[in-house]
Amino acid sequence: CLYFCECRYRPPLLWGASGHIQTAYNVLVGHVFVPSPVGDRQSLSTPDGSTVTYDLYQPQHPTASSLFFLLCPGGTGDLAAVFEDLLSRHPSSQWVLVGFSLGANIGVRFIGERVHWRSHFLCAVSVCQGYDPNQAIGIFPSTSNLSKLYSHHITSKQLSLMRRHRSQLLGETPLVNLRNPAGRNSKITHRGHDCNGFALDVTKIAGPSNEALLWRAKSIHELDEYYTRRVLGFESVRDLWQWMSCVELMETVTDFPLLLVNACDDPIVPEEVHSIPIHYTGLFIIL
Q: Transmembrane region positions (predicted)?
């Protein structure tokens, strides 16, 4: 069937009937004896002056066929630059795109935006993404204390990273002047800014009062309000999240093999949001 509504995983009592305990145990213990893969780190420059790096793994395959694993963080602009580089190296290869959480949202957006590259992909897999942040945020704060803990933890980790790079992220001038047409690629920019956030208009956050609010952020919404939406030129967090969402592009992916996987007890993505992927299930999209 196209919607596996009966396939609901229920953790055994061994894990306290909680998938979170099972996941935490595997994170702490399950990876102790796993060998570290050895890959090649590739670097390339993008039109906006940024440098994108990605790791490429080429393990041996029993069929003697070429097999590649590609790990690439970033946004759709980064992914496009990396894939264009891969096509020049391996023009006849077929790929499977797999994304988790925010990476899944980026993966679906990438497939929706780059229609001309779909023929190079066998399929795509989206795991545990929230689809539409604006819909999820109305449910997210009231779901459970665990969801609030996740949000606070993610925010504190991101703020810690930002503090280490404060001079670059909160300086007085943008990192790259994308308003200069010579340094701007219209395919990966939005309102004069790089869609991945590399070229930041930090003047929108300049000032001790705004910066103080940023460092006091306790949630993802507050972090995006006091920093992300300002440097990317959005009027509100809602506008930012609507632009980031892959929902509007899912209409264009109905002729591409796409597997959507979500967990019913996900503390970040409430089950009420599952109505979005259910709506789009059909001949090519499977939930």
A: none
How, if at all, do strands 51-57 and 69-71 pair? antiparallel
**DSSP 8-state assignment for residue 79:** H
DSSP character at residue 37: P
How far, in Å, CA of 106 to CA of 118, rounded? Answer: 15
Distance CA 31, CA 269 (A): 25
Q: What is the pLDDT of residues 119-151, one digit of tens each?
A: 888 889 998 888 888 877 655 555 556 677 878
Q: Which residue has the tokens 């679906």?
A: 108
Write out the DSSP string of 137-200. Answer: HTTHHHH-HHHHHHHHHHHHHHHHHHHHTHHHHSSSS-SS-TTSGGG--GGGEETTEETTSSS-
Six-digit token pair at 60? 């041996």
The 3-state DSSP class for residue 157 equals: helix
User: What stretch of H or E contains 238?
Assistant: helix 237-244
Cα–Cα distances (Å) from 70 to 38, 59, 131, in that order, read 12, 11, 23
Amino acid at 259: L
Q: Residue 285: exposed, middle, or buried by beta-carbon count in 10 A (0-12, 13-18, 19+)?
A: buried
| Residue pair 62/47 in contact by the 8 Å Cβ criterion | no
Provide the 3-class DSSP secondary structure of residue 53: strand
The end-to-end CA distance of the chain, in Å, is 10
For 151-182, how does the pLDDT look when each residue is reduced to its tens digit (9 = 90+)? 888 899 999 998 988 877 776 554 444 444 44
| CATH topology classification for 39-136+245-286 | Rossmann fold (3.40.50)
What is the residue type of 111? I
- Minimal CA–CA distance to 262: which of 130, 96, 123? 130
Q: Which amino acid, one-letter code, is at 197?
A: G
CA atoms in the 13 A half-sphere facing the CB of 155: 21
